[in-house]
Amino acid sequence: MLIVGIAGGTGCGKTTVVNKILDEFPNKQVVVIPQDSYYKDNREISLEERQKINFDHPDSLEFNLLIDHLKQLKKGKSIEMPIYSYLTCLRAKETITIKPARVVLVEGILILADPGLRNMLDIKVFVDADADDRLGRVIQRDIVERGRSVLKVLERYHDTVKPSHLQFIEPSKRYADIIIPGGGENQVGIEVLITIIEKHLLKNKTQKNAQQHKS
User: Fold this and answer.
1) Of 116, 110, 115, 137, whose CA–CA distance to 38 is shortest?
2) DSSP for the chain?
3) In this prediction, what percent of the chain has a pLDDT beyond 70?
4) Does 131 have pLDDT greater than 90?
5) 30-34/103-107 β-pairing
6) Is 195's pLDDT higher than 90?
7) Residue 107: which residues within 8 A CB-CB, separation 6 or more?
């Protein structure tokens, strides 16, 4: 199993990169584990307080559960991935069953910021994009998907998103094996990443065949 981490700032184009990889590997060869599914459940505080949570801070995530789930997948076991709602800031009672696959893509803004999670990743990718481009995408996404006004999005960007990006996300870029500048529009960068994944899969397949011949 190959575990690929895809990090980068909010609105940088990580999802676009992930979708282009999925298009290249059909037949359920690839599964995606979004970091967003592992935000802590916050039932003990009011909705008003929950909406003030800084989702761009490492403390908002349950990294231990994500690491444990990756270990289970490596052992060939299925996991029950949480479902998190940005509208209620709570985990749903339901979960999503994820079965082991040849490639696991772990995608999220902070996945290179946690040492334990970094150690689980075979390939570490950072999707880089201009701050203005990222802000434009964040405004568009938060209005459509999260029901926020432009004013609220800009307030949140300046109060939490930008400071956390500078403190936690941007510094984590130094741990990346591959940096894709220009976000999801960098077709050449994405093709390089896909080629590396293919090479790893081919290498694993060759090793597996060699072991079978020995036995």
Assistant:
1) 110
2) -EEEEEE--TTSSHHHHHHHHHHHS-TT-EEEEEGGGGBPP-TTS-HHHHTT--TTSGGGB-HHHHHHHHHHHHTT--EEEEEEETTTTEEEEEEEEE---SEEEEE-TTTTT-HHHHTT-SEEEEE---HHHHHHHHHHHHHHHH---HHHHHHHIIIIIHHHIIIIIGGGGGG-SEEETTGGG-HHHHHHHHHHHHHHHHHHHHHHHHHHHH-
3) 94
4) no
5) parallel
6) yes
7) 5, 6, 7, 14, 15, 18, 32, 33, 34, 35
For the domain covering 2-214, report its CATH number: 3.40.50.300
pLDDT in tens, 22-38: 999 877 889 999 999 99
